[in-house]
Amino acid sequence: MSLNNTPSSERIHIGIFGKRNAGKSSVINAITGQDLAIVSDIKGTTTDPVLKSMELLPLGPVVLIDTPGLDDEGKLGTLRIKKAYQMLNKTDIAVLVVDGSIGMTEEDDRILTRIKEKNIPYVIVFNKMDLITDASVNTRQEIHSLQVSAKNGYHIQALKELIASQLPKELTEKKIVGDLIAPLDFVVLVVPIDSAAPKGRLILPQQQTIRDILDAGAVSIVVKDTELKDTLDKLAVKPKLVITDSQAFGKVSKEVPRDIPLTSFSILFARYKGNLDTLITGARTLDTLEDGDTVLISEGCTHHRQCDDIGSVKLPQWILAHTKKELHFSFTSGTEFPDDLSDYQLIVHCGGCMLNEREVKYRMKCALDQNVPITNYGIAIAHMKGILTRSLEPFL
Fold first, then answer.
1. Are 372 and 258 in the same domain?
2. DSSP per residue over 58-103, as a string?
3. Which CATH number covers residue 112?
4. 158 and 242 belong to one structural domain
5. 374-376: strand order across its sheet
6. Which residues form the Hydrogen maturase F tetramerization domain (predicted)?
7. Is 74 in the same domain as 160?
8. Range of 34's domain?
9. Among residues of the chain, what percentage have pLDDT more than 90?
């Protein structure tokens, strides 16, 4: 991936919701000026959520989520509706498309209530206004509603501007590491190259961190863990910060002098996307696990697992060695995250580089609501290596 490409996790996710034949796909095509979604008079043309990355002015890089109809029928329809509602967990701005010739219905009100409960900025789009002849049709005017016609382009530009105006300010101002450094500071990134490393490229958190360092006007120095000590010895200026891959935490902490701040990519992303205090508390739960407890190890992406995969192999081994308990492990990956977490005494999640902030916080809230401690790979590893306190010092 080019450093100039905006990853999906950093794009604003715009979820398009509504009943079958409300014109969701037509609205998507109208605001993008492209035939991105299939348009048909047949109900239920969109059967599964479809995610499309693109540029949408005046917002910039976004992910548009086209969802199945909220009034779908039958057993499959019920599953499709559930999938549509799940998309709320990754939606930064919700667009509820209503058939303006019919007006708001029970299904529209139901999802609007869920959108408000989740504090998601939203827009209500009364589509098909080209068909309206009766002024009494229920196109009630809420604070963020607009009458449009995807067919003839009526109010489409105004709709794009209205959607853009819902963007939470904090989404555009957060930094991964840029707020911890100053122009011309040296930042050393430790990137182990082993069998699990992707050939010919850096993984997403490393790419994003390098870009954030460049945006801050600082200098990034990328080295393998085997070259770290020689690199530090040759630098005439002491680094402002060393950032390491979590797997090398133990080795790196021994080679980085105590007066040089040290942290990990996982800890940086925990601060960037989630609640760092919650994840720290979760890591300390490792010391209280008992025989027979079950640990859920969850990843936000799917990938080909190597023989020494960190999630399915290394982490369980480290946790067993640390706790000295007979534990059980469960694993999930990708977009699926269990609704019922009652079987788990601890959740260890990946850094979430492939998930947007809203979905990371949703998963954390699911755990907190069910009183299940949650942490992430880097924080758990730092705790087990006895260097968690040191790795948090850059943020104090």
1. no
2. TTEEEEEEE---TT--HHHHHHHHHHHHHGGGG-SEEEEEEETTT-
3. 3.40.50.300
4. no
5. 328-332, 294-298, 346-349, 374-376
6. 278-394
7. yes
8. 12-171
9. 44
